[in-house]
Every structure is written in structure tokens, then in C-alpha cells.
Give the backbone structure.
Amino acid sequence: MSDHSLNLKRLQVARPRSEEKQKALLRAAIEIFAEHGLGAPTSAIAKRAGVAEGTLFRYFENKDVLMRAVFDHLLDVSEQLFAESVVKSLPGTSQSQAVWDAYVDWALVNPAANATSNKLMVSGKLSNEQMARGMRLVDIAMEGLPLVQGLDLAHSIEFQNAICTAIGNAVIDISTPRPHLLAVYKRAGYQAMMRAIKTPESSES
């Protein structure tokens, strides 16, 4: 075996990937993307995670791969959140309202993750599989709602998700300085969202 091969082998053994570092990079990316947008440099992400920029590229081949990894992580969180919200919901609470309440509560506690998720959804950087997975989550959250007239399932869900996100962000923004009114804002926001989605045209379909 050549000296070069031996050195390469030693390097691979000495520098195994760390799950802790990978998680730190994902957390740092979420924070940096929320603060500075998706155009933020990878050097800023590495610095926030406390590693060299070269280390970042050992875990994520390029920035697009990193963004997709961040979105996969946020999808995992959303799936768990949605499942728990339905299980823990009070009797008589619809699935969509339970998910709405849980989403608003989560976004208030995790503003960076919420902001980054919203940015990634419209970035054009996600794979078709990721977009489909995101749409399935919205479909679960909006279970039982009629399609918007003139739109197929995918486009109807996309439109409904856009409305939900806009109203959700409004509720989050206004609730942040007034936490004592959160329950009122969540209820009013949910009602506004349902009125916006359940248009006369869609209810007739």
C-alpha cells in the first residue's frame, strides 16, 4: 500500500462523522437562513455551528444539499407535531383546528425554524419528493376541506397552504407582543382562515 493510500486511510479513520456536529450545522443553518435569507454564505453557517467551513462540506456536499437536509429535518418535526396535536386534541376539536393551534404554538416558540421553513417552501430548491411530502402534510392538516373550484388536488392544497401560512404568520406576529391574547388570536385566525378557504365556489363543488 502506498504512503498516499495509508495517509488517506488514517485521515478517514481519524475524522469520523459526528451526529452532534451534523445537528449543530442544521441548527445553525436554520438560524442563519432565518436571519439573513437563503443567500447567506455557508461560512456564516459554519461559524455559527462552531466548525470550519470545510467541515460543513464533509457533511453536506453543497449548499443546495444542506437546504434540502434542513427541510427534511423540519418536515420530520412537522409530522411529529401534527400527529401529537391530533392525539392530544380535546373532544369536539376538528383535526384542522388541532393542527392549526399546534402550529401557531410551535412557531411562536421556534420563530427561526418557522421563518426558514416558509423561505424554503418557495425557494425552488426542494426536490419533487420533498414538495410532495410537504403537500401531503398540508392535506392531512386540511382533511375534509373541499377543493377550490377550478384547481386540481395539488394546486388546491398549494393555494390553501399559502392562505394558511399568511394568516398564521399574521397571528404569530400580532401574538408575540401580546401573549395574553394568544387564545383569542388563534381562534379568530382559524375562523378567518376557514372563511378564506371555504369560498362559496369551493363549498358548491
